[in-house]
Design brief:
Length: 254
């Protein structure tokens, strides 16, 4: 496997898979889908469990404030009970000025220090300050591409690992599963390396760890989803969901 970097502001990671031949070594997605259908009560029952079809036009129109809001939600949900964040979300919206990046960028230090005592939100200092950093990140991308939503809409799902790398490098606390869940919740078409998805990939013959964290394993996962997308013509979100529903206890992808 080789990883090449293309010149340009995004430095997108391009994956070429030479030693790995998916068609020779991996279970076909037709087999995985048939197993998921059997487990869920048939093709129609499985179809009802699919997420919304990714809509690039809708994503391109998504406001930068909503992108920053979702970044914040995913950051605060990481390692914390999602139900608590959901219950307090109206308070988050008020405390963080409806997540308007430019407005947040002009706030003085006193504003950020006051948030550490604000009962409307979860008072985690590092996560609070990530909002300020990510507001700047969103503005930078918007300046380069027109808006963050337009930027995401143009990024191909065949290079999700390149996008995750960018979120990690230029964003704050957006690495790993947090970045994957951000992309899923804003409507970008991609896979999620949940426990069940990884179990499906390993069962199908992919040589990866039980927890996908290394760049090498992520490249293998990307290559396999690319192969399945070519095989089926399905969105990556569908491939990921079907994969998760075909094994294990069928936990949600997050």
């Amino acid at each position: 496997m080789t990883v090449r970097r293309r010149a340009g502001p995004d430095r997108r990671i391009l994956v070429s898979w030479r030693a790995f031949n998916a068609s020779d070594r991996m279970t076909s997605f037709k087999t995985i889908r048939a197993r998921a259908e059997k487990r869920k009560g048939g093709p129609k029952a499985l179809d009802r469990l699919m997420p919304d079809t990714p809509d690039l036009k809708r994503l391109a129109k998504l406001g930068d404030d909503r992108i920053l809001a979702e970044m914040t939600r995913r950051v605060f949900c990481a390692g914390f009970a999602w139900s608590v964040i959901d219950a307090k979300w109206d308070g988050f919206e008020d405390a963080f000025l409806r997540f308007q990046p430019a407005k947040l960028g002009f706030q003085p230090e006193d504003y950020w220090e006051a948030l550490l005592r604000d009962a409307r939100i979860v008072r985690n200092g590092a996560k609070i300050m990530s909002v300020r950093d990510n507001a700047a990140f969103v503005q930078e991308i918007a300046k380069e591409h027109g808006s963050f939503g337009k930027f995401l809409a143009k990024w191909p799902p065949s290079n999700e690992i390149g996008l995750l790398d960018l979120l990690t490098r230029r964003g704050s606390r957006l690495g790993g599963n947090t970045g994957q869940m951000l992309l899923r919740f804003v409507g970008w078409d991609g896979f999620v390396t949940s426990k069940d998805v990884v179990a499906c990939l390993r069962d199908a013959g992919l040589d990866i760890a039980e927890e996908v964290k290394s760049k090498r394993d992520l490249a293998k996962v990307q290559a396999q989803f690319n192969a399945w997308a070519e095989e089926t013509g399905l969105p990556y979100t569908y491939l990921s969901r079907i994969c998760a529903l075909s094994v294990g206890e069928n936990r949600s992808e997050h």
